[in-house]
Design goal:
By secondary structure, the chain is mostly helical. The chain has one domain. Helix content is about 55%, strand content about 10%. The strands form three sheets. Strands 1-6 form a two-stranded antiparallel sheet. The longest helix is centred in the first third of the chain and has 26 residues, at about 5-30. The mean pLDDT is about 90. This is YkgJ family cysteine cluster protein.
């Protein structure tokens, strides 16, 4: 598979996840607080290059790639996700400016489960949801143990690895993952154009 095909395969994975996530969200009635963005206000959110290929191709084709790359290079390691539109000075609120091209980590958080040390599924979510929607969170946690269907984060990472293990094996802070995805897209087109000459 070339890089475009890998990006398309990631998008297919995202479509499958969107279906499962929507079904879970309709049954769970849990939702993020309006305008929160606190999970994005963390410079060390771990992400892979592969999950951000669709975003990198979007930046490239929309003519934004060079500007975004310059922003990423200028941003320090303590910077929040480059696509977070902060709505408060303290950085505690915001919305994703490229929501349809967000990474796998962004799609799984709040709508997927992992297995804990006892092998039981537990919802991957934030402290704010656990506290603000405490009663519903407890109901949903019990329902998950009793068979409520929920996307499994490990299942989707396994599918990501199957697309390209090399681009999915290493996790980086989110901005570095986005930067490496952009660099991969630039390299891809550089070699394509070089072959056309």
């Amino acid at each position: 598979m070339n890089l475009i095909e890998k990006s398309l395969a990631v998008n297919e994975l995202f479509k499958d996840l969107a279906i499962e996530t929507q079904q879970f969200n309709e049954q769970s009635h849990l939702k993020c607080l309006s305008g929160c963005g606190k999970c994005c206000a963390n410079p060390s959110v771990p992400a892979t290059v592969l999950e951000f290929l669709p975003l990198a191709f979007e930046f490239y084709h929309s003519g934004l790639a060079e500007g975004i790359l310059a922003q990423l290079e200028a941003a320090g390691e303590d910077s929040y996700c480059i696509v977070l539109n902060q709505m408060t000075i303290a950085g505690r609120g915001g919305l994703c400016s490229h929501y349809s091209h967000r990474g796998l980590i962004c799609r799984l958080f709040g709508s997927s489960a992992r297995r804990n040390r006892e092998g039981k599924k537990e919802l991957i979510t934030c402290k704010l949801i656990k506290e603000d929607q405490s009663k519903q969170y407890q109901i949903v946690s019990a329902a998950i143990q009793n068979g409520l269907e929920i996307p499994g984060s490990a299942d989707y990472y396994t599918r990501l690895f199957a697309i390209d293990f090399h681009l999915a094996e290493q996790q980086y802070p989110i901005n570095l993952a986005i930067r490496k995805a952009l660099e991969a897209v630039f390299s891809f087109y550089y070699y394509i154009e070089g072959e056309a000459v």
